[in-house]
Each structure stands twice: as C-alpha cells, then as structure tokens.
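Backbone geometry:

***
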Amino acid sequence: MTQVTIKRNQEGKITRFTVKGHTGYADAGEDIVCAAASSVTWSTANGLENVLSIPITYTEKDGYADCIIPDLSPDLREKADVLLESMNAFFEELTRTHREFISKTEV
C-alpha cells in the first residue's frame, strides 16, 4: 500500500508531502494507481521547483518521495498553494476510489 502524508503548518498551508510504499494494484509497468500517484507527486514537485522557482528540498528513491516547502513570500505562497491543494485534491479522490491500495493522512 502507498501511504501519502500531508503536513500543514498552523495556518493550514501544506509545508511537506511524503509518498511511500508501493500500491500493489498491478505488476510494475501496469499499475495505474502507482502511475497516478507518481505523476501527481512529480508534477507538483516539478511545478514548485521548475515553474515557480521554489527551492524545495526533495528526496526520492524507490517507493519513496518527500518534498519540503520552505517559508515563502505571500505572493509565492499563493501560487504554490494552487499546486499543492490541487495535488491534495487528486490524492483525496485517488484514495476514495482505490482505498485498498493508497491511503492519505494529514498532520
């Protein structure tokens, strides 16, 4: 099972997201749940880093991704929130439709 953890600060802003484990939905290369989780994780990290030029701290290895978002100016935070909350909404839907393969918690 893949476990997604979303960490929020006291203002409710996402400051970190971690995705770990393998979904087990299907064999490697055919696992659509894994592909969906990987795609939204990479898309969000790339958007933060390469589109918005936010110096995130990103760690990735087999079955594990962790992204830490630094403190941001209000304008940049607003832009980052669009990506981060979109990712969160995607994970919400993915866990609703495939709850036996992926779970999400917020802390």
Notes: The chain has a mean pLDDT of 97. The chain is about 40% helix and 25% strand.
